[in-house]
Amino acid sequence: MKSYFARNYSKLKYPKSSDKNDGLRNAQLGAIHSISSFFTVNKSKVAIIVMPTGSGKTAVLIMTPYVLEAKKILVVTPSRLVRNQITEEYSTLDTLIRINVLPNSIKKPKVFEMKKLFTEDQENSINIADVVVATPQAGLSISNVESFKRKFDLVLIDEAHHVPAKTWTEILENMNESKKVLFTATPFRMDNKTIKGNFIYNYPLSQAYKDGIFGEIQYIPIAADENKDFLIAKKAESIFLLDREKGYEHFLMVRASSKPRAKDLEDLYATETILNLKRIDSSMSIKTMNQYIKELRDKELDGIICVDMLGEGFDFPNLKIAAVHDPHKSLANTLQFIGRFARTNASNIDVAKFIAMNDDELIIENTALYKSDAIWQEIIIDLSESKIEREESEKEYISEYVIEKRNQVEREMNLSLHTIKPNCHAKLYKVLGFNMHGTFPEICNVEYGPYINKEDNTIVAIGKGFESPKWYTGEFVKDEENFLYVIHFQEKTNILYIYSQVKSEFIYEKIVEAFSQSYEKIAKHEINRVLGNLNDFEIFNSGMMNRFNESGESYRISAGTDVSQAIDPSTGKLYSAGHVFCKAFSDEQQITIGYSSGSKIWSSAYASLKDYIKWCDLNGTKIFNPEIVVKTNTNFDFLPIPKRLEGYPSNIYLADFSGDTYTNPSLVYDRDSDSMIGLITDFNIKILEVSNDFITLIVSMGEIGQTITCDINGKYYIEDEKIVVLEGRHKISLSLYLADYPLIFRTTDDVMIQGIEISKGDPEAIVFSDENIISIPWKEKYGTNVTLEFKNKKTKKKGKSIQDTLFEVLMDNSNLDYIIYDHSTGEIADFITIENKESEVEVILYHVKAMSAKNFNSSLSDIYEVTGQSVKSIIWLKTKSTFLQKIKVRRKSGHCEFKKGDYEVFLRDIKQQDKLFRGKIVAVQPSISKSVAMPEKIQEVLAATRYYISNSGKVKSFEIWGS
């Protein structure tokens, strides 16, 4: 006997909606025909339908069992409220009858609303039902019943972006023989888990806007304030009353992040506004919620207050005002929420309005959506479509991977490469003879894969590791770990990228040997090009190799907000660049990027496989582009970048271990007896012979010695290796250890060589001159009262102040583009000058103090105050953005008066300058004189101030304007 849906298939019609007649919209026609077409050749696959909120997704969901002539269907909904609505839709078929898809006389299907987990007393109701509607937990309980698995031939998932959650996924896996259709407006999740299935129809938001389904939206920002809830509530009330006065039947939704917040907002709106609102949350019964919704539809309420209860599956197009007290932080939830208000299928409605606090720091998909100048209409459409496009592209890319070992296919069906998100890290080699079908070394212990993508020369595998815990020395207790390996070959550069969670030189070397004929590392001056085509750098971790100090610090590591500030020209004379890790901007998007001398590049970002390969290729293309000139416009540029070693100089006289070796010295063992010898830094190194292509050395400790040869490619050769080194949990040969931590060689003319890199230095370090006191003829030329710092009503008769004179001196300097006066509590400095030079922007802060002592260089109190202010003020010159922000804040409070130059022009000018941002501090204190003997204590204070300021970062100069 035919099923209910098969019997009524012939009654189904496809009328098109028009101005005169109700019917199916374009989106609904496209979706239902796509479903019908897809399942003619895909009997048990998963179909994904993407339709924006408000485009009629529910009608398509109700039509689907008719077009597929289903026998029995299971509909899974995200909430009780939506479950109730879908049950009502199937029971009455009101929507399909209203739009003339089904006749009014049609017999209705038998529908069972499953309100609890499966029990035997429900069995008869389920058996006789044509449609069972359930929430996830109830749906899972029925999918676990063996007798029902084959009875349901169609599963429909509403709001499918929930599918990757464990419950939803198990339902789909249990119903593996059924047809499955997933409906969603947002086919992506905040947790980056994949929605498995085939995109068979995607109705873009831009088309919905053109078709008049997705209406106009407007963001109304509220200035940041402690009373934001009150301000949002009052603005919502004002807009609601104004819209009603204009004749619009608009209603309000107040959005809160939690039930307690919703209760607080309910009290706020009740006491501070005249709006009649009701609160809805998941603790209420369905009966209570339906009652409140009925009051809303009957226009007895002005609106509702809720958390997420009406976020999905709720259709009330007159909801047009949103008071967003707590914004969503994911794109999916934001789009779902906005979609509720952008519907157009009602009369007497206007633009949807969203009221929220201006919050530049809330970033959604790299976009500050809640900033004051955000144009939501454009941003929302672009965010939605670009995200869906990426999701579709990602699925297509993953489908290109195949498992060559056919016996593994079934075991690995549930392992989706879509869910793999490696952190952006790679070891790079220049290779010849790439072999895609190489075999992973045994140490990788590959359990899953290899998965091979021949289109872009990529191999993915997952290996298992079994190691004893660090607290256990026996052999019986093992921790199981899974390790990801990704190998990618970039054909146009011949770079092989290796991603390995086990960051061991031994593993890298074994992998590159397995997948290439020959290889070599990449020199740092080439790796350095990954910093090319970026701007607004902030370097927060860097290393520097000391080319001159043999007995002390050989490698300095700096970490902090912007460590480049601690580098000056003198540093560049002594050190060469080691590793670096920084923030920067690429095409207005902030990224992180780092590299090291071991041919490694990395970022703090995690990416899909497709984006990871794009990241590799992007950086590889830069590395082998000799036209790229790296300029960070920070003090990091003072550090010379080592060049590639072409041959060993004959005047090498010293060999030493690397800085990393000294930082974390490894234990060394005798290979034969497995007995510990000592630390690797306990060994002595002696050079035996130097030629153009090789260096021969002997490494020894007591009677134990090993002869080593190192070539210009940084490879170490040892015959009959007797020594092994404990690296992590593995014991590796000394030659492999030295390949990862290469020795440092020094020459008699201050050249340093490490690995494949050579650094040439200049021993003439720049020393800051002791003549840092500038004499100003205060009395003789300007007639200044040096005991008067500034004029006010009380002191106007005391003569010309130091500030007056300083202003006159500054105005005489025609090179200055801006002069700012900021004398008051909380000042940046008394005066600030900005000069736009050819290659840098120089900002000088002037701190002025009057002379209280009778004689020059006689009062420490005169010195302490002005030097203290000088030191404290360097915080404002930390970065260009910090300086600009402080100027803006001071301007808002009525300070920072522009004595020369225009403020608005200044903001545009400084922002657009792609120049090095440099600072200078000037202490203006007539009490200090270079012509009078200076007590030792005053000298100490000034010297300490100068040293602190000159090593603080952006500020590289400290001057005293004295007498």
UniProtKB/TrEMBL annotation:
Superkingdom field: Bacteria
InterPro entries in the cross-refs: Helicase/UvrB_N (IPR006935), Helicase_ATP-bd (IPR014001), Helicase_C-like (IPR001650), Helicase_Restrict-Modif_Enz (IPR050742), P-loop_NTPase (IPR027417)
Keywords: ATP-binding, Helicase, Hydrolase, Nucleotide-binding
Record bears the keyword Hydrolase: yes
Listed CDD domains: DEXHc_RE (cd17926), SF2_C (cd18785)
Record domain Helicase C-terminal: where: 226-387
UniProt-listed PANTHER family: ATP-DEPENDENT HELICASE IRC3-RELATED, TYPE I RESTRICTION ENZYME ECOKI R PROTEIN
Full protein name: Superfamily II DNA or RNA helicase
Organism: Alkaliphilus peptidifermentans DSM 18978
